Structures are given as C-alpha cells and as structure tokens.
Amino acid sequence: MRTPHEIRNYFRINTLKTRLICNKCEANYPIDTNLTNLKNHFEKCHNKEYHLAIEREKIKRSNRFHAVTFINEEEISIENNNNFQQKQIENQQDE
What we know:
InterPro entries: Znf_BED. This protein is mainly alpha-helical.
C-alpha cells in the first residue's frame, strides 16, 4: 500500500468529499487536484512548512528504500543458503 506524500497531510477533505482544504490557510482545491498543484500552493504560501515537508518526505523515502534493499538482500541470502544446502544433499546422495 502506498503512503501519501507529506504535503497531503496538510490538506483535509471537506464533508461533501468534493474539495481538499489547506489546514494552514483554508485554500481549497477540487478533490482530484494533483500533487504538483498542492506542492505549488504550499511552496508559494507556506514556504517554511513546504521545505520541512519535502525533507520529511526524502527521509521517509530513503528509509523505505533501505528497508526494501534489506529485505531483498535477506531473500538473496536465504536463497543462496538453500542452494548450498541442496547441493550438499545432492553430493551426499551421489556418494
């Protein structure tokens, strides 16, 4: 499941579920507004928070990448170990 971009945390959905409303200034956008437009609003109107959110997003993405890399390395290690054990069994059977 995808996690939302940090910028989206600064917007809430109205009760009719038709608009996104900025938590800082009450600016509102159609519910299907793309992330780029929300980022542009935040960069223009809430510059300090924008840069903090972008930094948090970079950290979040970096941590997610490292977790996936670790899982993949672990899977490779397990696979190599299984292959090694299989070869040992085959060698014992050949003897």
